[in-house]
């Protein structure tokens, strides 16, 4: 007997088929209709339903490329289960390279949303009803915020055995235990019974090959661990597990010169950079306040006193 079709928006996708679906969000003042573009691969064979999304923050374009590459390797003829791909969730922010929505709301603080709320709230609600409620597992792709860069990393509730299993399967260089945040997709998904991984890597408004490749391979490995695809993204080194992280902050205003890179291990007290005045005279050295792995860096040349400079995560098992 053929596998049952998959209902989404106002269409039903038959087993063994791929379909693009445009789910209506709103109509702009100009009269243009705005849709949420979704691609569904409904595998011929049974298996779990997984969603993958990017650009909840409109300037985090890297995940759009991760999804493009993942989709190019998949066919509904051979897929076990169902993949629901939403490359751009914040469709309005994406068009203008903006993290937020036009009303300045953060979509990732607007979940689960409501049908009659603000624009952010409505998009969140639509995503919950059309995507999250139809899936068992989700992967939410992010990058660092404006003028910062992140080491490829999974952020997830590592105390939940199911989530931990998938985080390990992803195989990012670092997996960071992170408590849920109210209003986030990860929180709302969990509340509806989904297992959600958050991937962080790279910079806003950029395509960086290292975090793109780590993202594609990680997603492929998760799909392989779920039995949805045969080949995986290669064997990964085990992720370095971290449970605590914090930012080293600037104690003076100055022009930043970093002496560490993403993924470096630093010791407490180690010099990681310096701050200079406009003529290059050093005004302050920057030291690590703890030992750890560099998982995030400020890429802005000018930092103000108090600004975050380097994000250090403490491995559970120090090497
Ligand atoms: Zn983000």
Walk me through what this model shows.
By secondary structure, this protein is an alpha+beta fold. The termini are far apart. It contains six helices and 18 strands. 46% of the residues are buried. It has two domains: 6-238, Zn peptidases (Aminopeptidase, 3-Layer(aba) Sandwich); 244-315, RNA polymerase II/Efflux pump adaptor protein, barrel-sandwich hybrid domain (OB fold (Dihydrolipoamide Acetyltransferase, E2P), Beta Barrel), CATH 2.40.50. A five-stranded mixed barrel has the order 8-9-11-18-16. It has a four-stranded antiparallel β-sheet with strand order 15-14-12-17, with no helix packed on it. Strands 1-2 form a two-stranded antiparallel sheet. The chain is globular and about 70 Å long. The protein is 20% helix and 37% strand. It has helices at residues 62-72, 91-96, 119-130, 161-170, 185-191, 209-225, and strands at 6-8, 11-13, 17-27, 33-42, 45-54, 80-86, 137-142, 148-156, 174-177, 195-202, 240-249, 254-258, 265-266, 271-276, 282-287, 292-298, 302-303, 308-315. The protein binds zinc ion. The site of zinc ion has 3 residues, from loops.
CATH fold assignment of the largest domain: Aminopeptidase
Which small compounds were modeled alongside the protein? zinc ion
Per CATH, the class of the largest domain reads Alpha Beta
Which architecture name of the largest domain does CATH use?
Answer: 3-Layer(aba) Sandwich
Total of helices: 6
Can you identify the CATH superfamily of the largest domain? Zn peptidases
Q: What is the CA-atom radius of gyration, in angstroms?
A: 21 Å
Query: Can you give the mean pLDDT?
Result: 95
Described by strand count, sense and barrel closure, the largest sheet is: 5 strands, mixed, barrel
Domains (count): 2
**Percent helix among the residues?**
10-25%
Report strand %.
35-45%
Globally, the shape reads globular
Count every beta strand, where a strand is a DSSP E run of 2 or more residues.
18
- End-to-end separation in angstroms reads 53 Å
Instruction: Specify the structural class.
Output: alpha+beta
The string of secondary-structure elements, in order, is EEEEEHEHHEEHEHEHEEEEEEEE
Return residue spans where pLDDT drops below 50 for at least 5 consecutive residues: none
């Amino acid at each position: 007997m053929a596998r049952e079709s998959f209902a989404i928006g106002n269409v039903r996708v038959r087993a063994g088929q791929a379909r693009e679906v445009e789910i209506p969000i709103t109509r702009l003042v100009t009269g243009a209709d705005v849709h949420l573009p979704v691609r569904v691969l409904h595998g011929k064979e049974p298996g779990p339903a997984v969603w993958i999304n990017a650009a909840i923050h409109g300037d985090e374009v890297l995940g759009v490329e991760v999804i493009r590459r993942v989709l190019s390797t998949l066919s509904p003829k051979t897929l076990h289960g169902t993949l629901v791909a939403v490359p751009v969730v914040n469709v309005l922010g994406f068009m203008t390279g903006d993290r937020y929505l036009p009303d300045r709301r953060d979509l990732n603080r607007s979940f689960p949303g409501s049908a009659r709320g603000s624009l952010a709230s409505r998009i969140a609600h639509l995503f919950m009803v059309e995507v999250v409620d139809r899936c068992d597992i989700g992967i939410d792709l992010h990058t660092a915020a404006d003028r910062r860069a992140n080491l490829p990393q999974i952020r997830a509730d590592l105390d939940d055995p199911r989530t931990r299993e998938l985080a390990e399967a992803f195989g990012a260089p670092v997996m960071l235990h992170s408590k849920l945040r109210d209003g986030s997709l990860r929180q709302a998904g969990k509340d509806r019974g989904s297992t959600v991984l958050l991937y962080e890597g790279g910079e806003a408004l950029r395509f960086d090959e290292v975090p793109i490749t780590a993202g594609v391979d990680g997603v492929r490995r998760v799909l392989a661990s779920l039995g949805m695809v045969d080949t995986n993204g290669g064997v990964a080194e085990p992720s370095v597990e971290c449970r605590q992280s914090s930012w080293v902050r600037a104690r003076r205003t100055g022009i930043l010169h970093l002496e560490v890179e993403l993924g470096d291990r630093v010791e407490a007290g180690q010099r990681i950079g310096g701050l200079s005045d406009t003529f290059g005279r050093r005004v302050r050295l920057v030291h690590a306040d703890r030992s750890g792995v560099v998982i995030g860096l400020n890429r802005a040349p000018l930092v103000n006193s108090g600004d975050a400079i380097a994000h250090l995560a403490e491995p559970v098992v120090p090497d």
